[in-house]
Amino acid sequence: METGVEEAIPGRSLPIARIVAPRSVAVVGASEDVGKFGGRVIHYLQKHGFPGRILPINPNRATIRGLPAYPRVSAAPEPADVAILAVPAASLEAQVADCAAAGVGACIVITGKLAEAGLEGAALQDRVLGIARAAGMRLVGPNCLGIFNPVDRAMLSSSLALEEDGYAPGGIGLVSQSGALMGTLLSFGRHHGARFSRCISVGNQADLALEDFLAFLLEDAATRAIGLYIEGLRDPARFRGLLRTARQAGKPVFIVKAGRSEAGAQAARSHTASLAGAFPAFEAVCRDAGAVLMEDPQAMVLACDAAIRLPRWPAAELGLAPIASSGGSTVTFADMLPGAGLRVARMSTATRAVLGRWMPESHVALPVDTGSFHEGTSGDGLSACIRAFMADPDVGAVVVPMTTQPDMAGRTALFPPLAREGGKPLLYLMTAGAVGDASRAVMRAADFPFFDRMSDALAVARALDAEAAGRLRAAAPPPARPDGAGPAPALPPGALTEGEAKRLLAAYGIPVTRERAAATVEEAIIAARAIGFPVVLKGVSRAVVHKSDLGLVRLKLRDEAALAAAFTEVAAALEAAAPGQAEGCVVQEMARGEAELFLGATHDPQFGPMVLAGAGGVLVEFLHDVRMAPAPLSAADARALIEGLRVAPVLRGLRGRPGSDVEAAAEALVRLSWLAADLGPRLVELDVNPLILRAAGQGAIVVDARATLTEETTR
Amino acid sequence: METGVEEAIPGRSLPIARIVAPRSVAVVGASEDVGKFGGRVIHYLQKHGFPGRILPINPNRATIRGLPAYPRVSAAPEPADVAILAVPAASLEAQVADCAAAGVGACIVITGKLAEAGLEGAALQDRVLGIARAAGMRLVGPNCLGIFNPVDRAMLSSSLALEEDGYAPGGIGLVSQSGALMGTLLSFGRHHGARFSRCISVGNQADLALEDFLAFLLEDAATRAIGLYIEGLRDPARFRGLLRTARQAGKPVFIVKAGRSEAGAQAARSHTASLAGAFPAFEAVCRDAGAVLMEDPQAMVLACDAAIRLPRWPAAELGLAPIASSGGSTVTFADMLPGAGLRVARMSTATRAVLGRWMPESHVALPVDTGSFHEGTSGDGLSACIRAFMADPDVGAVVVPMTTQPDMAGRTALFPPLAREGGKPLLYLMTAGAVGDASRAVMRAADFPFFDRMSDALAVARALDAEAAGRLRAAAPPPARPDGAGPAPALPPGALTEGEAKRLLAAYGIPVTRERAAATVEEAIIAARAIGFPVVLKGVSRAVVHKSDLGLVRLKLRDEAALAAAFTEVAAALEAAAPGQAEGCVVQEMARGEAELFLGATHDPQFGPMVLAGAGGVLVEFLHDVRMAPAPLSAADARALIEGLRVAPVLRGLRGRPGSDVEAAAEALVRLSWLAADLGPRLVELDVNPLILRAAGQGAIVVDARATLTEETTR
User: Fold this and answer.
1) Is B595-709 a domain of CATH 3.40.50.720?
2) Which CATH superfamily is domain B514-589 in?
3) Which one, of B544, B528, B526, lies nearest residue B536 by Cα?
């Protein structure tokens, strides 16, 4: 198992487990005034029952909040495990040096205006890091908001979220590149009864990074589900490995990644001085590793909580069974499912039979309105229907969108036992305001999640379904190299000609159109006779990217006359388009089929080799119908990737048209993925556009391709 | 102005204004026990300070809750304006008859298991309605939850939502086909400080329908914004007119319509015995009338509230300006915008200059992280930036996604005056739990909306933007009939031939391909010479719908030999496909262009004539890229409809390709809309597929069309 938890060197390099649960904490800038940072930190340590020693540091006071104070960290009677600093940037360097001299294990640096603020701050951050490294002292931050550890009652933060009483310990581990967001989520989760193990604000990650804390949480027995708010990664390869480890450890990971949108990406860069990586590659890696990417941090916390406190969502792509006494709430919830990528369950015959006992046959349908139950059967019928749904193989979860009704709290109490007995999630929605508080209290007392918003329940249902998909992925065998995939031939650096790119593809067993070079009309005609009419004629130059835009491609040449005429024109166009760089003409087989796809390969600077598939031809550009996956990938993943395209119905055959050979396209994608994996950073990009898919069982063939390689020595 | 508020006939046919604010209320089945319906109704009337007379009806008691009780409604000392009944279905008929005999103005019938439960219930409902009609007594319901009227303190309901204290009067009028949902929304809104004028649960709408109450709310001075939860309409044409009236009255209407999804549609049908109409036509009519269709009833209430209590969103399709002290919250909010159909604003030079005073030039970007402000400038900088955004023409609203921070409540108090001064919406988000309650209290005290969820703020921003679009639509001139649009030629009922369909289109000035009938090869050749090669040959039979699937269409016939060969084949295929129903062949002009569209016209059973446009050819089927509008429509609307298609970028010209004549396509759509309007219910459907768009300025032409008419006498 890959982890980042270092062994403790005695007196130096404190392990994260001790930083998160220190025996002693020095608070630099301690104060009696809770309006000040240093006052709040001590107040919160005390208020939340910190069991270790608190060492207030203040040169002007003998005691603070009843504790003996010391003028400097180095003047304290013992070297603190952790020092918390939120001093002005101007005095940070001296204070960190004093901590280092005193043998402090780790500094949590709240101070901001460092690397995130510009070059001057970055230089100061580097100096501070140098001091810490030299002393074997760890740093959390700077520009962070500290650590919440309800398990050990170590609330090492000045966050106002700590104004709330009693954060009971639980299983949610959070790591966040935004401290304020983290504090907010802690308070938000508490309303729902969600409980946390450790929450870490990593700030600028000068020393300890998100990956280090993620590794810690994977080994941490208290943590059962993990939420991450990420702006940019320090070590993408390690991060990817840790996501896989999380799956093996049975700990679901839910992630919100800043920078999905262009504006978000820009802001995330300026915010914590970390590069927000390309989102599509990040998304592909998360899916591959079985982690769940979400949009909304609030929903992320609810999903972590649901993953811990609800029974497991049994498998991916299951339906939901909404049932409640309000037709209005179940119908609107059902209406919102397709927009969230979800669906209503299809009831089994057994389930229908059960429902038929409680309501008129004409009303047996999902969503279920218990208002249609036979007179006086509401409570019993509700329980019986929920039991039937729990046993129905197409049901992923039961949803109860409750509205105001008599004895709400009593009715509410029915659900936790039904969910536990049934072994599937039950999403309980209480959308009313204060009048629903008694019901919420029932759920808190039963240690059962509830939702205040239909939108929250939808986001969590989608996350739990994706989590189930990730769980199943983890059990799938790793990709295997197909016969005849590689090795790559020797090729020049830079832009390849179409012929070179196709040679590369052919070396991985990917079918390409037959072609022959032709320097003259006569050679072209001989080539065409060998290949068979109709043919395609193309002008070749590595200086030209979009050949068809420049008149360098002539399709469907049916006979020698047409070919001869085309040759003259293409040769002229070629000289015009790439003077002095023309590399002659090629005659190609004219491939036809039922459908076309775009395939691509690239090397992501963060995550390495990637493949793409998308709608072919001009559609790829306006539909943005492209999906990405890390390379190499398995045949099943390649198939799923292609089947996930919006254009998939066209591939399968529309309105009686024959389906196309998706299987062959998937194989081509697998082979391309091994090519990408083998070339590694040498591959800048490779586009196949189009891959022509023949009728099912007839194969697929690359009609055009282009590729660019770097110099072998440059990376 | 169209309204549904009838004049009061003295003593009979009470106007809705009096039903909603009665002077006296008889409660049938009154009880001391608040566990019982009749007990709760009286309790809530008293608790919420009903100023009129309450007449408890109970044959077994002299007084109830301190009030004199009467054995029957007809035994009370005066005829009540309103009687509330939640008696068992078995005694409903007798009780309603007694109310009628007593001269009661209206019965609010909570009793369920009527038309929604099956045939027996429907028969009872009809009898009850007959009794009421005969007496000139109005009915609300049955199967409803009554009326909340905070303006007149008339809470005529047993809903548990009335357990909450003090529903202060406000401007939101609600009409709902789900009573339980309505009570829930009332309580939900109250948490946010949203206040209501009148909320009406209409149930099965045996007598008074949603349209009646909507008409009432349009005239009601207390109501400033309207929310509707609709399952099915009783009078779609009247409803559409009322939406237009709402626009003229300056009252925005926000609607959640059940049945968007298939499962939802099914459930809505079974739920209140009302037909859930086709969603796309409903959506088109709402957009046309300037009403805002939403998905989530909770968000609908927040949108109504925001429309009343926030300054107006200035115009459609503006951007948002997120600003806060947490980079994490502003970035994730910005990331969620594109998914909600929204975007970050583009800052003007003036705005950039203001921001540059408060933060390093490198950080001047949206979203704004006030953490990057120069030291000590946070409060002033925040106000200055918000003022700049308020003045920026691309900003529709400022968004402040607040996270936990020192002096949250004090900071919160800054925003209401800034929004009021700036005259644009400011969406204030407090996503923390209890630690944010002090800030929420500040907003309630300032009478200013707040949001607990990013998802709520997104949904409301989208709704306000759509509301602005609707406001601007209302100011647009009505559609004008273009020259030469109609009249329609006489045509046979049933399926038309392609030629007949094209004649119909041509009569409305829509260009169609030239064609000539040809009974023999010789005639075909003569026709082709007149039209000019290449030509198209088609076999004609009104029995055949998809001609190309049967080999009845031959394209690109370049010369007489090719035409002659094709003629023989098509003639044979035609006899095979439609034995005895062949109507000969036609030779057509071969049209070419840059792009193609699908156009359609139909007559919606609820809303009348409709036109559609979508991606042409095979794309229309797999992209579901179709938009609908009521006919006739204006040129501007036709253009907007086509520009709104996903395929629009292709029409405008991709990657250097010439753009196509969208203007001509829009004109064809306008002319088609007059055709649909003129034919009315005679038109079953008319498809143009494809309309070929030539290069910009070169026009568009119908290549194929089919149509079906009903018998003129059938509708």
Assistant:
1) no
2) ATP-grasp fold, A domain (3.30.1490.20)
3) B528
Lowest mean pLDDT among A111-120, A178-187, A345-354, B275-284: B275-284
CB B679 within 8 A of CB B603: yes
- Amino acid occupying residue B273: A
Nearest to A259 among B179, B270, B335 (CB): B335
Chain-chain contact of B164 with A654 (C-beta, under 8 angstroms) = no
Whole-structure pTM value = 0.92
In terms of Cα–Cα distance, which of B535, B549, B537, B617 is closest to B578? B549
CATH class of the structural domain B168-309? alpha beta
Q: Do A259 and B163 touch (CB under 8 A)?
A: no
Encoded amino acid at B139, one letter: L
Distance to chain B for A685, nearest Cα, Å:
20
Over residues B321-362, the pLDDT tens digits come to: 999 988 889 999 999 999 999 999 999 999 999 999 999 988
For B434, the closest of A187, A365, A375 (CB atoms) is A187
Minimum distance, in Å, between the CA of residue B130 and any CA atom of chain A = 25
**Pairing, β A395-402 against β A319-324:** parallel
What is the C-alpha separation between A597 and A615, in angstroms, rounded? 5
CA distance A193 to A307: 13
Q: Are B337 and A262 in contact (CB under 8 A)?
A: no
How far is C-alpha B300 from the geometric centre of its chain's CA atoms?
12
At B625-672, the pLDDT tens digits run 788 999 999 999 999 999 988 888 888 876 666 789 999 999 999 999
A256 Cβ under 8 Å from any chain B Cβ:
yes
Distance from CA of A215 to the nearest CA of B (A): 22
CATH T-level topology, domain A311-474: Rossmann fold (3.40.50)
**Residue B267: predicted pLDDT:** 58
pLDDT tens track for B370-384: 988 887 777 889 999
What pLDDT is attached to residue A329?
A: 92
Measured distance CA(A650)–CA(A641) in Å, rounded: 15
Contact B602, B683 (CB under 8 A): yes
Fold equal for B10-145 and B311-474:
yes
> Using the beta-carbon criterion (under 8 Å), do B260 and A335 form an inter-chain contact?
yes
* Candidate from A264-278, A693-707, B551-565 with smallest mean pLDDT: A264-278
- pLDDT at site A475: 80
Q: Which CATH superfamily is domain A16-305 in?
A: NAD(P)-binding Rossmann-like Domain (3.40.50.720)
Query: Is the Cβ of B377 closer than 8 Å to some Cβ of chain A?
Result: no
Domains of chain A, by residue range, sit at: 16-305, 311-474, 514-589, 595-709
ipTM field? 0.91
User: B226 CB contacts (<8 Å, ≥6 apart)?
Assistant: B172, B173, B174, B175, B214, B217, B218, B246, B251, B252, B253, B254, B304
Alpha carbons B321 and B396: distance in angstroms, whole number: 8
A258 touches chain B (CB under 8 A): yes
Residue pointed to by tokens 């204004």: B17
Class of B10-145 in CATH: alpha beta
Indicate the helix (H) or strand (E) that contains A388.
helix A378-391
- Give pLDDT, residue B266: 61
Residue B64 burial (C-beta neighbours within 10 Å; 0-12, 13-18, 19+): buried
